[in-house]
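JOB MANIFEST
job_type = single_chain_structure
chain_count = 1
residues = 380
[input]
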Amino acid sequence: MSETTENLKQLPLGDWHRNLGARMVPFAGYEMPVQYEGVMAEHLWTRENAGLFDVSHMGQVQLVGEGAPEALEANTPGNLSALGVGKIRYTLLLAQDGGILDDLMVTNARNDLYLVVNGATKHDDLAYMRAQLPPSVTINHLEDAALLALQGPKAAEALAKLGIQPLQDGWPVPTDLYFMEAGPFLWNDVPVGISRSGYTGEDGFEISIPADHAEAFATALNGLDEVCPIGLGARDSLRLEAGLPLYGHDMGPEILPVEANLNFALSKVRREEGNFAGAERVLGQYPDKAATKRIGLFVEGRQPVREGADVVDAEGNIVGKVTSGGFSPTLQRPIAMAYVPMALSITGTAITVEQRKKQIACTVADMPFVPHNYHRKPKL
């Protein structure tokens, strides 16, 4: 490993993880827990109960000032100015040529925008936003806040036991939130921001809490029968099963949104306006005019294919690349994501992957591989 313990940043809960027996590894410049009991067991626990993840390496950012949504819109294809109070939108931070600099969650927190960005890119994101946004918008990096994720079908049941209250009378309690909704709350008089969101495909919550209260909160959750701590290993296998791309692996600045199979992030009104960074190049590929596309793969046999493996044609020519791959604990088979020519992206198409000079048969699969279990608001 190129990183050493001495130059890694420490999470607010670093000692807490070590005391629980976590195996710590370098990730995004931090020393982070990769597993406790084991990836397979932690993955299946989250699918059946509630897993507690420490994602404090992620960047938490506050944008304050009149016109902040419109200013951020200039660099994203999401319709942020129409985002209702307490609503969340997944969007993409785009370079001026339309390449994906990051994917992020944006919440309308009434008096400001609250952003969660990827840990490995947060400092670059901040620099880019400071260069692109007008002086009227203040950018605050919330470095004194921890971020925890409680994910799984019993997450709401567990969170309800902590006695979390709305910040104001008449507001909902956390378990009344629907998927992609958020609000301010109090836990033992400590202010916490809670969203019904996550990156596992399961129902769940992300909780932003002052770093000096994070250990007490995590200990309270971990003391519940429904909850176990879960490491990075299972977080990755869960998001892969959910068909969710990981920045820096399944997308990057050389990839455009349509190529990344993220058409849903290009909102209709923004497509019509065409006034975001790289719009001409991005919209030139919409909806299906890109040369390549991110797809899912079912892998034959038991041997997973890994990031960097080549997709080859019948003559052995490299035509694509695997970007994520691993064994699915839920499906009990290997799965992967890859970029392939658009003509090969149709579900059911036979694909050949070459790894370590061995050819492995694959089939294009629909994503998510495992159906999402989000707590969505019923349609009227």
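[summary]
The mean pLDDT is 97.
The first strand starts at residue 9 and ends at 10.
exit_status = 0
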